[in-house]
Predict the 3D structure of the following.
Amino acid sequence: MKKMIQTRFAVILTLLVVFGLSLGVQAQTKQEAADLYNKGAQLAKSNPGAAVKNFVEVAKITEKIGPDAYDLQQRAEKQIPNLQYKHAINLYKQKQYDESIDAFKKAVKYGEKYNDDKTKQKAEKIIPQLHYITGIKSYKQKEFEKALNRFDKAIELSPDYAKAYFGKGLVYKGLGDIEKMKQVMDKTIEIAMKKNDTKTARKATKTVSNKLLVEANQAVQDKNWSQAESYLDQSLNYGNDHTQAHILYMSIYNNQSQWDKTIQHGKQIIDKVSDKEVKSQIYFDLATAYQGKGDNAQACSYFGKVSTGKLQAQAQKQMKALECN
């Protein structure tokens, strides 16, 4: 009996010691968590990235402790998503774009984990923009494959992001793939107009129009009239000012002795042009067309209106040959 009592006493003593040690360890761990929290709070303004690490560690420790540390856990978890967002913003300001993207992804993750939808949504919105920025950077460096990859990532994350489509269109322009450039720029314009992003829509329209005019002009120089005409026909689908297209049409048709077509295009724009040198070019081409038709009176009239630029001397020479009054 005495031996049994001694055994029970030993067991109780052992439990008390273990329980006491457990309380001591828990108290010590909670104090460590509190110290980490205070340190994180001090770092929050100057180094949000380091503060996040502290608060994450606090959350881990207090979760293990349980209800006794619940208040501290809640306070730490509340800080984490927003501080991670601020850390990502700092990386962005330092132009560390890839690191910033990774940091914003963490902000999304923390926002989900700690029920901070506002921070999560803000971070999600910025990530596609950063892919666009890095894509433009790669495009300017003519790293077209990298640029395409970035723009595609931006589009994957934000399918109605017009600027990402615009960037992709620029890449195809740089690669000389006119058909793909048109397809992507058409998509850019469609999305931009739905989002009321008129600036991006105008930029896309102008980019396609200018590229088609450049290609048409080169085809004219190469005397590839059918190709030049095809590019010009396409360019008429973009924008409202087609003055340069009509001038190129006139050159194409004069070179093929299609005088009536030259006159038709010239008359569409002659009253809309104010630049004297451009107007002189139109007058000269109209005069050439009328001369080709044998209408010397009209030819003389238009040659006489050529008043500026390099064509003036040529116009005067033609007037002399035609014996204009």
Residues 24-115 form a domain with the Methane Monooxygenase Hydroxylase; Chain G, domain 1 fold (CATH 1.20.58).
